[in-house]
């Protein structure tokens, strides 16, 4: 009886095991045979094993080469970037053993700080998933479905500006976005919700300027003011978007942000070409834009500044209102009672507590008063005569 279990188990095993290999020691074997000392390998007998092993090796090798490739792209950007900004900033972060800080196999970061008008500057290099053959296949397939999907190598440069000095120094949202990227970006960025699309004219046929107020669009389209017009005319094919914003990219979920959580940023997203030196004008553009904002060269008039200020106040109020409503809904869900009901219950509890403390005489008076109140409410209201 006791030995029936192992035999059943071994039956189960047998069904899952591959059939036994035959011909391992067959003397009629005619295929290739490798021999080393006492070991003999007959590859023809291990065909599927070898194919499987080869695939695994290819995958590992592919992954290794892909990672190295991506790192080389990122490093070449980082080295060029450092050479260009060296004179502009006090500190360029040099990470140990590498010009970039790797954040996974496809993302790399560089960092700098110490310049007038700017708190910090970092770049984020996004490379294609060259290490992952399946992800690449998926991306290729997906690009056939979503024509706006783009997995080309790109770099975003983000400068965080010093906080506004107040007075004339009012925050704003302005963007210049490649038209093909508009739909996706609009969905992702909360701050762009404050802007309206303006006609770019013949200078910017591929791009849509998005501005909070029209005066901003006019200002940034002025030649020789910020360098934006000139840079895009020269190297527009490399620009995905420019966003200048003092509002969060993602919608705040807990009411308006505190002043110390707010940031003013300039963000550029650029296609990363083979020859990274082509991006030099954009690196310089970032500094020109920082100066234009810091030194208030955009010449916005008092009216415009007032409107920007008003927009911020209104946005803050609407976010606060939305959050209050959200809290209210959550409370209602939790207690199963509306705000009015909760208020009435709380009031009743207070009255009850008072009643508890009353003397008998007071209680009698109180009850009398309550009765009258109820009676008065039950009576139809006398109509006013005119
Ligand atoms: C930047 O590259 C990443 C990684 O390939 C990709 O997911 C993203 O869509 C690219 N962005 C743009 C704007 O091309």
Automatic annotation (TrEMBL):
UniProt GO cellular component terms: endoplasmic reticulum; membrane
Protein name: UPF0674 endoplasmic reticulum membrane protein C2G5.01
Region named Disordered: 324-386
Principal localisation: membrane
Domain of life from the UniProt record: Eukaryota
Organism: Wallemia ichthyophaga (strain EXF-994 / CBS 113033)
Basic and acidic residues composition-biased segments: 334-371
Transmembrane segments: 45-65
Basic residues composition-biased segments: 372-386
GO biological process, one term: endoplasmic reticulum calcium ion homeostasis
Record-linked InterPro entries: CCDC47
Molecular function as annotated in GO: calcium ion binding
UniProt keyword terms in alphabetical order: Membrane, Transmembrane, Transmembrane helix
Subcellular localization, as worded in the UniProt entry: Membrane
Membrane topology, as annotated: Single-pass membrane protein
